[in-house]
Amino acid sequence: MPPTHTALICVALPGLAISDERGQLSGRGLDGFYRGGRRLLSRCQVRVAGREPLPVQGRMTGASSARFVGTLRVSPAAGPDPDVLIERTRHADGTERLTLRNTGMRALCLPLEVALGTDLAELAAIAAGAAGPELPATVHASGLRWATADATACVLAQPPPSDSLASAGLLRWQLELPPGGAATVELRVRPAGAGPLRAAGHAATSPFAPAQAEGDDSRAAPLLRSAVADLQALLLRDPAHPTDLYLAAGAPWRCGMAPAEALAAARMTLPLGTRLAAGTLRALARTQLPGPGPRAGLIPGPRRDAGPHLPPSCTGTEATLLFPVLLAEARRWGLPDQETEELLPTAERCLTWLRTTVGDGPYLSDSPQGGPARCETQAYAHRAALLGADLLDAYGRPGATELRQWAQTLRTVFQTGFWVEDRSGGRPAAALEPDGRPVPHLTAGAVHLLDTGLLGAGRLAPGLLDKVHTQHLARLLGAPAMDTGWGLRGLGTKEAGHNPFGHRAGAVRVQETALAVAGLAAADYEKEATGLLKGLLDAAEHFGHRLPEMFAGEQRTAGSAPVPHPAACRPVATAAASVILLLTALAGIRPDVPARTVTLRPVRSAPLGELGLNGLCVAGASFGVRISRLGLALVEEAADGLQLGA
């Protein structure tokens, strides 16, 4: 696939605009404007007075826009200084503005040429290196047009060009610039006949509360601001139900629904409100498989590579187990009873699928055909059973007792069956083979054992590990074999098959690091949690406070920087949502809106010093909390009638 680690990716789905820091769209690699997964324009090269501007800066100005600056010296009388400044502002909605400024003392007459071209290729074809040649253009209105049997695109210019040359894909202007004067040309890239792009995230009412961070650590504010902007940019609407919003997995490779990632991201963003959770749950409820049959109740999902030691995993299993968990926790954060009851039958079918698939055994295997029983899958299933039982009890539905009994059986056998003993205290196996043999490798999938879920009255559901095993796991996650100094690697350095660029074999995945930080902090292993937290925040600075899906799991040394992964999505929903989890975990916010309480369990060591989080959302109202340098938490704003729990 074309590399993305140096690309500036503007996102306002379904629109994308991708280029390198120079700003010229060359027609090579991923360069171009996209809509709905199709490249509408691949080449947009600017020449002024017959020359390309010298690029001096290219940077993102927001999740959906970028700015590029170039200079030229066109007048010999100007001396060594440039006398023309060329500024390009590019937006994912398909708009590009070119502004030329005369910074010299003399009037200038400047010819401006913009060379355009496209292949109208699908993003999947570009990723596979199968994009076709550029198509011939025709003159169309105040610009150019391209067409194939199944797609059309046009570029319209304002003001209209003085000359259009379709055979060369050229638009030309003759600009008169007085001293200090400027002229602007706007290009609008559209499918032929289509109007301006209306991105889901640009709706009048955002599903996200306007969260802000402030405090001693200057990294928290820009990181939170960037995360919320990226989440906004990745929003999509269900085409048949446009009020239901959900998150695309990530740009540029996964700009559609990925059920497990969409649910995981919605769960981590509950502190910003429950509207996204409700939209995601409704959209996925419509995909649930009907009965009868062994797959009845499953929410389908694609298979995902699981690294060198296990076959690909089923993300449908993960999504099915996440559905009741998200619904139960969204209710605690303030999802209204009416919406909860509307989605409850789907959650019940998910839980029925769980009990049917497990049968008489304690473990949930990867598939009905008898795949491995993965460590993280048991954690998902245990959490779904406990939170699902809590949900069923709240609405007087049957089945809660059976779910709790099975969860207790799983917990008992897991602590012996999945624990691989060694002289250092042991480790959780990555999986059990169908014949019961453990896959003993230490992977980041073990962090899901720490992610237990929120019950009522500020309580966390018990996990699969007891206190002694949790202590061993915390020590392993904080050791150099797993902690790179920038975050948690996916596979320990001492394991066979370790690869620092392997996306399930050694690379740092942001979501897993955030889950580790939150889980370790909740279990009172603050030293290990703080080490991972500070490493990830340091890495975020190197990525311009816009965390990618993953980066190389190379060990941090003095003066080093995190190494980008060439194919990582950025922005990505789970990485952006992980920022919300990281910061709110420091405050330990545990709401129980049905009981009209909220409990705070802040990290006592206050690893970021004083931290204020404002504009969060609990019970549908603004919520603010401040953690002091002494690790004490104070509610600064809350819904009327919401009480601080014990």
Describe this entry's structure for a reader.
The structure is a single chain. By secondary structure, this protein is of the alpha+beta class. It folds into two domains: 8-198, Glycoside hydrolase, family 65, N-terminal domain (Beta-galactosidase, Chain A, domain 5, Distorted Sandwich); 202-637, Glycosyltransferase (Alpha/alpha barrel). Helix content is 27%, strand content 26%. It is built from twelve helices and 35 strands. The strands form ten sheets. The protein has an eight-stranded antiparallel sheet, with no helix packed on it. A five-stranded antiparallel sheet has the order 3-6-11-16-15, with no helix packed on it. Helix 7 (375-394) runs antiparallel to helix 8. The longest helix is centred in the middle third of the chain and has 22 residues, at 337-358. It is elongated and about 80 Å long. The model has no long low-confidence stretch (mean pLDDT 94).
Secondary structure: number of strands: 35
List low-pLDDT spans: none
Report mean pLDDT, rounded to a whole number.
94
Q: Major sheet: size, sense and barrel closure?
A: 8 strands, antiparallel
CATH architectural group of the largest domain? Alpha/alpha barrel
Cα-based radius of gyration, to the nearest Å = 27 Å
Write down the CATH topology of the largest domain: Glycosyltransferase
Q: Please, how many helices?
A: 12
Provide a quick synopsis of the model.
The chain has 646 residues and is an alpha+beta fold.
Write the layout of secondary structure elements.
Layout: E1 8-12, E2 15-19, E3 25-26, E4 32-35, E5 38-41, E6 43-48, E7 54-62, E8 65-72, E9 84-91, E10 95-102, E11 108-117, H1 123-127, E12 138-140, E13 143-147, E14 152-158, E15 163-165, E16 170-177, E17 182-190, E18 212-215, H2 220-233, E19 235-238, E20 241-247, H3 259-268, H4 275-285, E21 303-304, E22 313-314, H5 315-333, H6 337-358, E23 373-374, H7 375-394, H8 400-417, E24 419-420, E25 427-428, E26 431-432, E27 438-439, H9 467-478, E28 508-509, H10 510-522, H11 526-542, E29 550-551, H12 573-587, E30 589-592, E31 597-600, E32 611-618, E33 621-627, E34 633-637, E35 643-644
Helix pairs in contact: 2-12, 3-4, 3-5, 3-12, 4-6, 5-6, 5-7, 6-7, 7-8, 9-11, 10-11, 10-12
